[in-house]
């Protein structure tokens, strides 16, 4: 299959937009769909292929849209369905695909389905959520924990039962063992497909089904890996999540979902996987061309960043994934921004961020970039009295929640709230972000933004970087290298992730340096020398 025949999503760069914080068109302090539409030309100019919108559905916003009360409507905070249709039309006119975030594992407790389900045990939706009797002493049915802290079970006095919530108490889990639930969820997917979306990011995709027997999770033993993305201060990380998530029946739902998606053209999915063994699950969920198209894990969204660690992640997924496909990210709306998480001790965070982009977009898979990543935004510092995230408040100060990566996008340096809104924004704008605003970086040819635009355009010239195989992986204390290749070309990539010069031996071959990517290096006598925070690119013809 040549580059022209590949599905659009294979090797694509997807730009994640957090609607509350992108751009506020109606000046109420909260970003909205018309604001996104207004700024889509900026996104298209980055050279990305698609946008992913975090939830904008009707919601009481206790978890800022990840608690859905109506899957088929837009929350008035963000606009209307007509606004969404205009957004899709504008994006398509600009050559951008549109992906939306679907939160299928749970709803809000204000969803009509749950309001009916909780009334008694014999209503038509009585079994639509995960209900269980208490133990004889009145305690919860098992030891499962909520990611957001404490027990995963909440008592409902009307039913005299507990309901399961893997997240907030106000986010009850749907019962995927009930075929009526599956049918109705697939109907919501069809609703958005019919409105012209090109794909879905599936939130917590391995949380859909639970163990029917409600068996206790075992404790995490010495040597076991804990779920990535969960802070060590959270007791959730003390269990091995054998029964509450990642059940075999999940595969059956993903297969049903894929049957529906395949009735439409050029649709894709990317699933978020949080698990004790995420890479194996990524391979399982994306293999066989009958489940997910892509999946991503938290392996590159945590604190580990050494070249040896990065090489081990690449090696593990390459050996496991087979015909599946990964989607890689270094930042998103749930984790500390990468420039701070990985680069806080680096002497030149901007240069470090540039080489990280080259590394991320050179891995075999597709890529998600998070809004503001192209500006090199550090994690914002939010004082406790301004914290909005319900996840952050109970674990403060050891864990400060997710607000620091969710602050408003800075558009104009010298305007109020960096041009995001004339009203007081829902989260404050970090002063350091104002200095990195879009208008400032657009006038600086050496800026992070200028580099992103130039580099992403340059990458599109090389099909091997988009969809080729990955071989010849090696790492040192300073960096790593590998080769991407297709039937016509081999492209060598070497990355210096430190602030010292690095020399690395090249794999066998006759390598010719590539130009136009914005990096500096020198190839001589079978080795490559890179100044601090640089990447090297060379090619060898397979013809």
Fold and architecture overview:
- The protein has 543 residues and is an alpha/beta fold.
- It is 23% helix and 17% strand.
- The chain is built from 13 helices and 21 strands.
- The chain has helices spanning 33-45, 81-93, 112-117, 179-194, 249-261, 278-286, 307-321, 338-341, 349-360, 431-434, 438-442, 448-459, 463-467; strands at residues 13-17, 50-53, 57-58, 70-74, 97-102, 131-132, 153-156, 161-164, 199-202, 268-272, 294-296, 327-329, 366-370, 469-475, 479-485, 489-496, 502-505, 512-513, 522-524, 527-530, 535-541.
- The strands form 5 sheets. The protein has an 8-stranded parallel beta sheet. A 5-stranded antiparallel beta sheet has the order 14-15-16-21-18.
- α6 packs parallel to α7 (307-321) and α9 (349-360) packs parallel to α12.
- The chain is globular and about 75 Å long.
Main attributes?
single chain; 543 residues; alpha/beta; eight-stranded parallel beta sheet; five-stranded antiparallel beta sheet; 13 helices; 17% strand; globular
* Quaternary state of the chains: single chain
Q: Give the % helix.
A: 10-25%
Distance between the termini: 17 Å
Rg calc: 23 Å
What's the layout of helices and strands?
Layout: E1 13-17, H1 33-45, E2 50-53, E3 57-58, E4 70-74, H2 81-93, E5 97-102, H3 112-117, E6 131-132, E7 153-156, E8 161-164, H4 179-194, E9 199-202, H5 249-261, E10 268-272, H6 278-286, E11 294-296, H7 307-321, E12 327-329, H8 338-341, H9 349-360, E13 366-370, H10 431-434, H11 438-442, H12 448-459, H13 463-467, E14 469-475, E15 479-485, E16 489-496, E17 502-505, E18 512-513, E19 522-524, E20 527-530, E21 535-541
Parallel strand pairs: 1-2, 1-13, 2-5, 5-9, 9-10, 10-11, 12-13
Antiparallel strand pairs: 3-4, 6-8, 7-8, 14-15, 15-16, 16-21, 17-20, 18-21, 19-20
């Amino acid at each position: 299959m040549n580059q022209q025949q590949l599905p659009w999503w294979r090797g694509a760069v997807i730009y994640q937009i957090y609607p509350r914080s992108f751009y506020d068109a109606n000046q109420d302090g909260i970003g909205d769909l018309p604001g996104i539409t207004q700024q889509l030309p900026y996104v298209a100019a980055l050279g990305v292929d698609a946008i992913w919108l975090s939830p904008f559905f009707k919601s009481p916003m206790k978890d800022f849209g990840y608690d859905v009360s109506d899957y088929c409507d837009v929350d008035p905070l963000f606009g209307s369905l007509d606004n969404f249709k205009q957004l899709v039309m504008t994006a398509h006119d600009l050559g951008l695909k549109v992906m939306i975030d679907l939160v299928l594992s749970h709803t809000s407790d204000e969803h009509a389905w749950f309001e009916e389900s909780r009334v008694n045990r014999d209503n038509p939706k009585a079994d639509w959520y995960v209900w269980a009797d208490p133990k004889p002493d009145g305690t919860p049915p098992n030891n499962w924990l909520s990611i957001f802290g404490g027990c995963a079970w909440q008592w409902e006095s009307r039913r005299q039962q507990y309901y399961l919530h893997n997240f907030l108490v106000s986010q009850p889990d749907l019962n995927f063992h009930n075929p009526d639930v599956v049918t109705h969820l697939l109907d919501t997917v069809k609703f958005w497909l019919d409105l012209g979306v090109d794909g879905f990011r599936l939130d917590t995709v391995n949380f859909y089904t639970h163990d029917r027997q409600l068996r206790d999770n075992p404790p995490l033993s010495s040597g076991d890996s804990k779920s990535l993305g969960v802070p060590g201060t959270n007791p959730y990380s003390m269990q091995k999540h054998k029964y509450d998530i990642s059940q075999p029946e999940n595969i059956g739902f993903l297969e049903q979902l894929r049957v529906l998606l395949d009735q439409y053209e050029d649709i894709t999915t990317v699933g978020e996987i949080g698990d004790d063994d995420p890479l194996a699950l990524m391979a399982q969920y994306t293999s066989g061309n009958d489940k997910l198209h892509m999946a991503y894990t938290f392996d590159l969204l945590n604190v580990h960043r050494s070249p040896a660690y990065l090489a081990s992640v690449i090696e593990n997924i390459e050996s496991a994934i087979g015909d599946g496909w990964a989607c890689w990210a270094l930042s998103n709306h749930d984790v500390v921004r990468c420039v701070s998480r990985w680069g806080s001790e680096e002497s030149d965070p901007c240069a470090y961020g540039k080489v990280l982009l080259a590394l991320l977009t050179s891995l075999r898979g597709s890529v998600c970039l998070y809004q503001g990543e192209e500006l090199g935004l550090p994690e914002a510092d939010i004082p406790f009295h301004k914290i909005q995230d319900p996840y952050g408040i109970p674990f403060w100060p050891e864990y400060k929640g997710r607000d620091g990566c969710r602050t408003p996008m800075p558009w104009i340096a010298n305007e109020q709230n960096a041009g995001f809104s004339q009203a007081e924004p829902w989260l404050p704008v970090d002063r350091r972000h104002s200095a990195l605003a879009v208008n400032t970086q657009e006038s600086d040819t050496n800026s992070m933004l200028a580099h992103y635009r130039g580099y992403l355009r340059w990458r599109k010239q090389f099909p091997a970087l988009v969809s080729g195989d990955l071989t010849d992986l090696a790492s040192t204390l300073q960096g790593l290298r590998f080769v991407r290749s297709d039937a016509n070309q081999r492209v060598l990539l070497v990355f210096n992730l430190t602030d010292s010069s690095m020399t690395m031996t090249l794999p066998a071959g006759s390598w010719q340096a590539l130009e136009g990517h914005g990096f500096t290096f020198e190839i001589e006598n079978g080795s490559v020398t890179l100044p601090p925070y640089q990447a090297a690119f060379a090619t060898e013809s397979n013809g």
